Amino acid sequence: MKSAVEPSAAFLTDRYPELGRGPVSVEPYVSPEYYEREKVHIFKKTWLQVGRVEEIPKAGDYFVKELAACDTEVIVVRNKAGQIRAMHNVCAHRLNQVVYEKCGNTRKFFCKFHGWAYDLDGKLTGVPDEACFFDLDKADYGLTQVSCDVWEGFIFVNMDPNPAQTLAEFMRPVYGDVEGYPFDKLTCGFAWTSVVNCNWKLALDAFQEAYHVAYIHGNSIADAIDKSEGGSMRPLDVVCGDLHRRLSLAGNQKSVYGNPKAVTSGGAAAQEALAESAASRPIAAAALRAGMGSARHEFPLDGLPEGVNWTKHPNWLFDINVVFPDFYLSLRPNYCQAYNFRPIAHNKTLFEGRVYYPEMTTAGGRFFQEYMKVALRDVLLEDMSTVERTQLAAQTGAKQHMVLQDGEVLVRHGAHVVDRLVNAAQSV
Questions:
Q1: Distance (Å, rounded) from C-alpha 285 to C-alpha 115?
Q2: pTM
């Protein structure tokens, strides 16, 4: 893994010569056959983020996650010992789905077809009229287990019963120095879910570069970014690992959106954020004034892990972390965004977005969160406004390649990694 940018480096991309500078093929974004290979060689063999531990705090709490790219649905449950388990939602008897509800709490899972019962570890514990079966040993007919582990409170599953890497081995090459970020002091403030008619990589690509920000977001947050002389938002630095990638960005500290630490830090940071926004964006300024001092927890910059704001830039805004293959985790001084881009088909993606904030202790704090909810909603709508049209345009066949600039190096890296894994499997 290569890290901190060298001042003499002309292009970030050139630090990763294996990525090249050439155009990127459109075929992986439009081909049903290519998507089928991604399912087999990537999604059914890779750790996939499916939830947070806070979603199932008590024994018996569970949720069900449909993973179309893995052709399955999994039950994720906390057992009586407090451990988190995952298993396929398929009864061992006549293959009915055992759980119909998307979440809940239970002592046991009962199949609604014939009443077979499973405990919280997936073991078969009850079979109605068991004497009529032929040499049935219940120990052989539990729910099929799914590999499951937790990193920093995020629950991951892996369809491979014997994953090539542990979750820690999977995460730490790029994100080991992020461990210790105060995820446990944040709660889900708001969330969105939507099906988008585009390839999963195309949707994710819209979130892993900032070249577009000055244009797409011209009426929402363009005044909150730290622009280059060329007028765009260039990365402070990037890291491209074997699978994962990340990018750091700077903001305009004289704006509310561009100075996210203002609401928790207050003081000079808040005064700086209000310097321009008080006149140009009075509602944002009012929300900041209302929210200051309301957060239950403070997050001093020097208390964050080394891997957060790793450039130590004074105008740091946030880091984009893309956990391979489809998990986007944006870390900021006082909140974080967790987005999943789950494939449904070669041209259809389930977007799941959650934003985590520290608990606000006053009505003013809640008002600030509602303001941020609307601001982030508008940014999301602007991002998503292009992806379906881009998919339709890509499917015309008019263009065979995309041309990428240096600030889009994470898009290039993502395409490179997917293609490397799909083609490596093909050549075996």
A1: 58
A2: 0.93
